[in-house]
Write a structure and sequence with these properties.
CATH superfamily of the largest domain: SPOUT methyltransferase, trefoil knot domain
Largest sheet: 7 strands, parallel
Number of strands: 10
CATH topology of the largest domain: Alpha/beta knot
Number of helices: 6
Distance between the termini: 28 Å
Radius of gyration: 23 Å
Structural class: alpha/beta
Shape: globular
Order of helices and strands: EHEEHEHEHEHEEEEH
Length: about 220
């Protein structure tokens, strides 16, 4: 990163950078600090006050424009997800990653619903969705249309999400119930199962958090 020496202050290296952070906090300002070592005994401090972007600076598309834009060929199947807030959160994440559609199955609530809206924040109006009485019916539909079914589930043959290779092909991701996980009846219909590496004691993530991690990983690391 190029450094403008005229805009930098030469500091005594014995003084901790944390002291500058504390001073900034006491002044009520958030300072972004770049510490660049120049030579032994001295550092340069380049400081910049960060600013939050305004809504008008986010280049957000209008719902009508988004609705007709080309989407990634990914469909999300929610298998008997109980929480309305989880459903709404998945809609919002699907909008962020331009997912093709969401299939709501079994006990899943459907829009319009004020509890779903609390977390979807209007994404139910931009992301295409469809309801199925059973998850089996939703899976049968995507299979008939040439989609590969991938379960997000811990199984005896699941692979780490970080090892899963996505090349942009048509894929349907299945997220299961908060307690029981993915329905047993669709295990034989899936081509693969992926799980998120975890290092704590629970080995369990909220389904909306899980969906966000999986979608981010797929779209940022697609081959």
């Amino acid at each position: 990163m190029p450094v403008d020496l005229d805009s930098c202050q030469r500091l005594n290296a014995k003084r901790s950078p944390h002291s500058y952070l504390n001073s900034a906090k006491s002044a009520g300002k958030l300072i972004l600090l770049f510490i660049i070592k120049i030579k032994r005994g001295s550092v340069l401090l380049l400081q910049r006050i960060m600013r939050k972007l305004k809504t008008t600076e986010l280049n957000r598309q209008k719902p009508e424009e988004y609705r007709y834009k080309e989407k990634w060929p990914v469909r999300i199947i929610l298998d008997n997800v109980r929480s309305l807030h989880n459903i709404g959160s998945v809609f919002r994440t699907a909008d962020a990653f331009s997912v093709e559609a969401i299939y709501l199955c079994g006990i899943c609530a459907v829009p319009p619903n004020k509890e779903i809206h609390k977390t979807a924040l209007g994404a139910t109006e931009t992301v295409a969705w469809e309801y199925f009485e059973t998850t089996d019916l939703a899976v049968a539909k995507v299979l008939s249309e040439g989609y590969t079914v991938v379960l997000v589930e811990q199984t005896d043959s699941s692979i780490s999400l970080t090892d899963f290779i996505y090349a942009g092909e048509k894929i349907a991701l299945v997220f299961g119930n908060e307690i029981d996980g993915v329905s047993d009846s669709i295990l034989p219909l899936a081509a693969a199962a992926v799980e998120i590496p975890q290092f704590g004691t629970k080995h369990s993530l909220n389904i909306s958090v899980c969906a966000g991690i999986v979608m981010y990983e797929l779209f940022t690391n697609r081959k």
